C-alpha cells in the first residue's frame, strides 16, 4: 500500500462527536481542553521554575473575548486548569465555578499551587496582533514581578478541536488509512472501485485511526446515541427559564405535549421533531451534557433526528449506526475543506453543517445510494449559505435554539428532495458547495461571526 498524503482526512468519528458540557464547543469544550493541556505542560517545568511561579493569566481574544461571558468560557478555562475534562465534567459543578467573584481556585502543579480567579481572566477586546484564528487564547505563567515563566498560544477551531501554536492543523504523522480521501468525489471513487458500502469504508478507516475493534467502535457509537437521546429526554421534562439575562423560557415540554395531543394529525410529525431538537438544544443552552454534532451550538439537530428515527421510524441500532457514519463523512468533509466554527463560517458552519449531516443520516438510514446521500448533504448546506452567527447577549439561546429545529426540518426536506428524483440530476456537488461555503465565510463581515456586534444580537435591548 502506498503512503497516504498528510492532507487526507484522518479524523476519528469520536473526535467529531464529543461528549461534554454546553453551551459551546468552541467556547467551552475547546478552552477547557486548552487549559488542561497547559496545566499538563506546566507540571513538566523544572522545579526551580515552578518555585518562582506566582500567577496564571488567561488572555482571550476574538470571539472568545466578544461572547466568552455568555458562553461560559471563563468557567471553562478555570475547569481545565483544575484538571477537569469535558467528557467527565459535572455540569452543575461547572456552572458553580466563578459564581462568587471573591473566590479563587487552587491549581496544583506538582509541589507548587497557584491560585486562579476572575482577576486572572482577561477578555481582550483589541488584540495587539492579527489573530490567526477567530478563537485565540494566550496562557501565561508568571512570577511575582510579572515576568513570564511559560507561555502557550491556543486556537479553538470549532467543534471542540484545539490547536497549539506551532502545531499543524493536519498532523504530519497522520496514520495510514486504507481508503484515503479529501473530497466526496474521492470517497465515491473508493466505494465504486472496491464495491464496498459507505459504512464499510468509514469503519475500516476508523479502525486504522483509533486501533479499536469493530465491536468497541459500535459500542461507542451506541453510547453517543444514548447520550444524545438522554439530552432529548431531559429537555422534554425540564421547564422554567434558561440561565442568563435573557430569561428565555423553555419551549420543548410545551411542544411535546402539543404534539401528543395532535398525534393523529399531519402537523404532529413536525411538532414532535421540533420538540426533540429544542429539547436537546435547550439542555445545551443550560450547560447540560450534550454531544457535539458537529458543535455544541448545533447539538440539537442530529440528536433530534436520531431520536425521531428511533422512536417514529423504529430504526434498529445497526441502521442508526449506519446513518451516523454518513453524518460523520459529511462533517469530516466540511471540517477538512471549510470549517465547522461559527467564528470562522458564521452559523452556516454549525447549523448548516449539522443540517447537511442530518440529511445524509436520513438518506443513508433509508438505504439510498451514495449519490442520494451526497445530494441531501449538498441541499442541506446550500440553503444555509451566508447564515450569520449573531447570538443575543453571547448566549447560545436566541436564535441558536430555534435554528437547531429549523436545521433539522431542512435536513428532513433535503432528504425528501434528494430521494424524490434521480440524484445524478443534481447540478451542484457537495464538494462544490463546500468550496462556496468556505469562500462565503471568508467574505462575511467579522461582525456577523459570533461577536454579538451585528444582526439579531443588536436587538438585545428589546429582550
UniProtKB/TrEMBL annotation:
Alphabetically ordered keywords of this record: 4Fe-4S, Gluconeogenesis, Iron, Iron-sulfur, Lyase, Metal-binding
Pfam families for this protein: SDH_alpha, SDH_beta
GO molecular function annotations of the record: 4 iron, 4 sulfur cluster binding; L-serine ammonia-lyase activity; metal ion binding
Domain Serine dehydratase-like alpha subunit span(s) in chain numbering: 196-457
Record has Magnesium as a keyword: no
Swiss-Prot/TrEMBL cofactor(s): [4Fe-4S] cluster
Residues in Serine dehydratase beta chain domain copies: 12-166
Superkingdom: Bacteria
Stored SUPFAM superfamilies: Serine metabolism enzymes domain
EC number: 4.3.1.17
Enzyme class: lyase
Catalysed reaction, written as an equation: L-serine = pyruvate + NH4(+)
Pathway assignment: Carbohydrate biosynthesis; gluconeogenesis
GO BP: any one term: gluconeogenesis
Gene3D superfamilies documented for this protein: D-3-phosphoglycerate dehydrogenase, domain 3
Family that this chain belongs to: Belongs to the iron-sulfur dependent L-serine dehydratase family.
Protein name: L-serine dehydratase
Species of origin: Rudanella paleaurantiibacter
Amino acid at each position: 500500500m502506498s503512503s497516504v498524503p498528510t492532507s487526507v482526512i484522518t479524523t476519528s468519528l469520536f473526535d467529531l462527536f464529543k461528549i461534554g458540557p454546553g453551551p459551546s464547543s468552541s467556547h467551552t469544550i475547546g478552552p477547557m481542553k486548552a487549559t488542561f493541556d497547559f496545566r499538563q505542560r506546566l507540571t513538566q517545568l523544572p522545579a526551580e521554575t515552578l518555585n518562582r511561579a506566582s500567577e496564571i493569566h488567561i488572555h482571550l481574544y476574538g470571539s472568545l473575548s466578544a461572547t466568552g461571558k455568555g458562553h461560559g468560557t471563563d468557567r471553562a478555562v478555570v475547569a481545565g486548569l483544575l484538571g477537569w475534562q469535558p467528557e467527565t465534567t459535572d455540569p452543575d459543578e461547572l456552572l458553580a465555578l466563578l459564581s462568587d467573584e471573591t473566590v479563587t481556585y487552587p491549581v496544583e502543579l506538582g509541589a507548587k499551587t497557584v491560585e486562579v480567579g476572575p482577576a486572572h481572566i482577561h477578555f481582550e477586546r483589541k488584540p495587539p496582533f492579527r489573530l490567526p484564528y477567530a478563537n485565540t487564547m494566550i496562557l501565561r505563567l508568571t512570577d511575582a514581578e510579572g515576568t513570564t515563566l511559560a507561555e502557550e498560544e491556543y486556537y479553538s477551531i470549532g467543534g471542540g478541536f484545539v490547536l497549539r501554536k506551532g502545531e499543524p492543523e493536519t498532523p504530519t504523522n497522520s496514520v495510514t488509512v486504507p481508503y484515503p480521501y479529501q473530497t466526496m468525489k474521492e470517497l465515491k471513487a473508493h466505494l465504486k472501485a472496491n464495491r464496498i458500502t459507505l459504512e464499510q469504508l468509514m469503519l475500516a478507516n476508523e479502525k486504522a485511526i483509533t486501533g479499536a475493534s469493530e465491536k468497541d467502535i459500535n459500542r461507542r457509537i451506541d453510547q453517543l446515541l444514548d447520550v444524545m437521546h438522554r439530552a432529548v429526554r431531559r429537555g422534554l421534562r425540564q421547564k422554567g427559564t434558561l440561565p442568563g439575562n435573557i430569561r428565555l423560557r423553555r419551549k420543548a415540554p410545551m411542544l411535546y405535549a402539543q404534539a401528543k395531543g395532535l398525534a393523529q394529525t399531519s402537523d404532529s410529525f413536525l411538532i414532535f421533531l421540533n420538540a426533540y431538537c429544542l429539547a436537546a438544544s435547550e439542555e445545551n443552552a443550560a450547560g447540560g451534557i450534550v454531544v457535539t454534532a458537529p458543535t455544541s451550538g448545533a447539538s440539537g439537530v442530529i440528536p433530534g433526528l436520531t431520536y425521531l428515527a428511533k422512536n417514529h421510524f423504529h430504526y434498529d441500532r445497526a441502521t442508526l449506526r449506519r446513518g451516523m457514519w454518513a453524518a460523520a463523512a459529511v462533517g469530516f468533509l466540511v471540517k477538512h475543506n471549510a470549517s465547522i466554527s461559527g467564528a470562522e463560517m458564521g452559523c452556516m458552519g454549525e447549523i448548516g453543517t449539522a443540517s447537511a449531516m442530518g440529511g445524509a443520516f436520513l438518506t443513508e438510514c433509508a438505504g439510498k445510494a451514495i449519490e442520494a446521500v451526497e445530494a441531501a448533504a449538498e441541499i442541506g448546506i446550500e440553503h444555509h449559505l451566508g447564515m450569520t452567527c449573531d447570538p443575543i447577549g453571547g448566549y447560545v439561546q436566541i436564535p441558536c435554539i430555534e435554528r437547531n429545529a429549523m436545521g433539522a426540518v431542512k435536513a428532513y426536506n433535503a432528504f425528501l428532495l434528494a430521494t424524490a428524483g434521480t440524484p445524478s440530476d443534481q447540478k451542484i456537488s457537495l464538494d462544490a458547495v463546500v468550496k462556496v461555503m468556505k469562500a462565503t465565510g471568508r467574505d462575511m463581515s467579522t461582525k456577523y461571526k459570533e461577536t454579538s456586534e451585528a444582526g439579531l444580537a443588536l436587538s438585545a435591548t428589546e429582550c
